[in-house]
Amino acid sequence: MDNNIKNKNSASNSMIRVNTSAQEISQKKCINIEHGDPCSIVIIGATGDLTSRKLVPALFNLYLNGGLPDSFCIVGCGRTKLNDQQFKRKMEKALTEKGIPDDSKWRSFSKFLHYRSVDYENPGSFINLAKFLKKLDQKHITRGNRIFYLALPPSLYEPVAQMLGESGLSEEKENGNGWSRLVIEKPIGRDLKTAVELNQSIQRHFREHQIFRIDHYLAKETVQNILMFRFANAIFEPIWNRRYIDHVSILALETLGVEHRAGYYEQAGVIRDMFQNHLMQILAFTAMEAPSQFETGRVRDEKVKVFRSLRPFPVEKLHEHIVLGQYGPGTINGKRVPGYREEPNIKPDSLTPTFAKMKVFIDNWRWQGIPFYITSGKRLARKITEIVIQFKEVPHSMFRQTLEERIDANQLKLGIYPDEKIILTFQTKNPGARVCLRSATLDFSYHQNYIGPVLDAYEKVLIDCMLGDQMLFWRQDGIEHCWSYLTPILNECESCDNRSKMLQFYESGSWGPLSTNRI
Question: What is the pTM of this model?
C-alpha cells in the first residue's frame, strides 16, 4: 500500500491549530434549515431496511430540528399488509434502537405517518394509492406536492416508475403546486447499456428535473466543503494544477465486510459498488473547474466536463493501471473475521473483487499528466475516506550542503470520514543550534466552534429533494459518461482470462494487496 494509506497513525512533530469565531459563525444565516414546499413524502418499499435504518430516523431528526415543511405527511408503501398503527410501531422500534430523545415528540411526529399496502406490478393498486394521497392532500394541506422515494431493489425501479406514471402520479401542474419527484438510489444500471435503458424507461413518465438520483456521499458536509475550500480561498486555487501537484489520492476504505449485502455485492463487486458513483463524484469535485456561478446546472456541467476528459483506460495494459483484490480471513479490532469466500451466501470459489486501486488521468489543461490514484476496499485496517493532495518537491535544495535529510514535499489532506479535517503539512526549522527541519501541521477540525444543527447525509438529501435542488444528485449525462469510462474496464477485468489472473488475496485488517505500489 502507498505511503498515503500506511502513515495514518504517524504523529506530527508540531501542530498549529486553526480557530474560528463561534460568535461570528452563530450570526451566519447558513445555520438555518431552509424549508421546502408542503409535500407528501411517499416511501415505496417502506418495510425494508433502508427505511427503518436511514429514512425515518432522518425525517424524525429533521422534524426535531424544524427542517420539515409546515405542512407534510409521510406515507409508507409496501407489499406487506400493515395498518397505520402497525407501521408506526415498526418505525418507533427502529427509532428506539437509535435512541428517541423525546417520547412526546415521537407521538406528535407519528400523527403524520401513514401506511398503504401496494402491489408493485398492479396498476389498480397504484390508482388506489393516487386516490388515497389525494385525500391526504386535503387532510395535511400538502397542495398535491409529492416525493416518491424508491427504497427498493434496483430491479423494481422500472416497473414502479411505470405504475406511478400510468396512475397519473408523475404528472405535474403548471401553476407550481402539484409537483412530483422521483428519488432512486444506486446502483443505476450495472453498465452503460443497462443505465441507458433504465433512464429511457423512467423518462417515459418523469422528466429530468423530476428525477433525483441519490449519491449520499455528496451530501456529506466535508464533500460539499471541497468546492468551498478550493474556490473561496485565493491561496489554494492558483496552485491546484499540474504545475504544483505531483499526484492526487482518493481513498474510501472500510473495515466492514460484505455484511448483509452478499446477494448484491456478489453481482456488483467493488468497482460497481464504489467507483461508478461515490468515487467518481469525489474525483469530479476535486478536479473540476470553477463554475461561473454556484448554480445547480453550471456545477453539474463542470462535473460532466471532468468525466468527458478522462483518458480512455488502457485495458491492454491492465496490470500497469489497476490492482484488484479480495479479502481473506484476518483480524479486525482484535476480532477474527472470515474471508470473503467464507461469508454467508458467497460462492466458495468467488472471483468478485472487494478491493481496487486504479490510476486514472484527466486529459485537460489543468491536470495533463498528473495521476489520480483511486482506492477502495473492504476489511482494511481502518475506515478512512479522504482526499490527499501531494505537492511536488521543491525544485532544488539550497540546504543541500548543511542538511543531511531529504525535504518532504507539502501535503494537503481533506478528511471526509471519520476525521472531518483539513490538514496541511509544511517544513520549518527545528529549534536549536543545529540546522535541521521538522514537519509542522495546520489542522482544522470541520465542526470546530460550529453551533448550528449538524445534518447527516440522508437528512441533507431529503431537504434537497423537498427544495427541488438537484446540485448534489446525478444528472443522466454524468452517469452515462462514467459508465462509458468504466464499462470497458469491467469487461476486460471480468473476462475469463483475467478474472483469476488479476485477483490478489489480502488479509483482513491489512492495507490491501502487497502489490499496490506497482501502479
Answer: 0.89
